[in-house]
Amino acid sequence: MPISPNADNWVLDDAKQITRLNESNLNKDLKKLATETGQEVRYVTIHRLDYGETAQSFAEQIFARWFPSPEAGANQTVIVLDDVTNTIGIKSGEETAALLPEEISESITKETMKAPLIKSNSYNRAFGDATVRLAAILTGDPDPGPPVIEETINVEGTFATAEETEENRTSSTWIVVVLLILATVIPMATYYWYQSMGG
């Protein structure tokens, strides 16, 4: 990981999960957010964490490395995603924490970003949704909340009814009987044909 964040790059995609187009859009949106509000959000994706490390502890380590003093990190937020476990960690500075309480931070990492990952492993959508929600909160707009997850439950059974089973049983019985007769008659006919040819 770099010793300090790059001023022009708001996304550090070490895991190579974000498309170039989406990374460009995220950089543009996060730069605009920083210009308008002074609140800086940085995304980090990593492919594999060290043994015993969590996404949250890694986010805290990066935050401490990049922003060593409370003043430097006051209006900063770092979000780390481990693509092996799909776990997400978030660390914010003091000023940002006033706008982004712990409950909302957890909701962003565990609901807003997790929903696209659980549904379709869509890292681009996870970061896009998080950016929209963070931008709304950090600019002072009302929190749009986590996405609504629609569960589709198939209430219609996939098994056959008793009538369908009975109907198929009759036709299946006839197919088996015909195949047994053919399996007996064809070898016998072949044998007699060979005998008549040779004899």
Describe the structure in your own words.
This protein is α/β, with parallel strands linked by helices. The chain folds into two domains: 11-139, Diaminopimelate Epimerase, Chain A, domain 1; 157-198. Helix content is 54%, strand content 12%. It contains seven helices and four strands, in the order E-H-E-H-E-E-H-H-H-H-H. It has helices at residues 20-37, 55-66, 94-99, 102-112, 114-120, 123-138, 162-198; strands at 11-13, 40-46, 76-82, 87-92. It has a four-stranded mixed beta sheet with strand order 1-2-3-4, with helices on both faces. Helix 2 links the parallel strand 2 (40-46) and strand 3 (76-82). Helix 1 (20-37) runs parallel beside helix 6 (123-138). The termini are far apart. The mean pLDDT is 89. Keywords: Membrane, Transmembrane, Transmembrane helix. Residues 11-136 form the TPM domain. It comes from Adonisia turfae CCMR0081.
Q: Give a count of the beta strands, DSSP E runs of length 2 or more.
A: 4
Q: What's the CATH architecture of the largest domain?
A: Roll
Separation, N- and C-terminal Cα atoms: 89 Å
Overall helicity? 40-55%
Instruction: Assign the CATH topology of the largest domain.
Output: Diaminopimelate Epimerase, Chain A, domain 1
Q: How many separate domains make up the residues?
A: 2
Radius of gyration: 31 Å
List segments where confidence is low: pLDDT < 50 over at least 5 consecutive residues.
none
Keywords: Membrane, Transmembrane, Transmembrane helix
Transmembrane segments: 174-194
Organism: Adonisia turfae CCMR0081
Domain TPM: 11-136
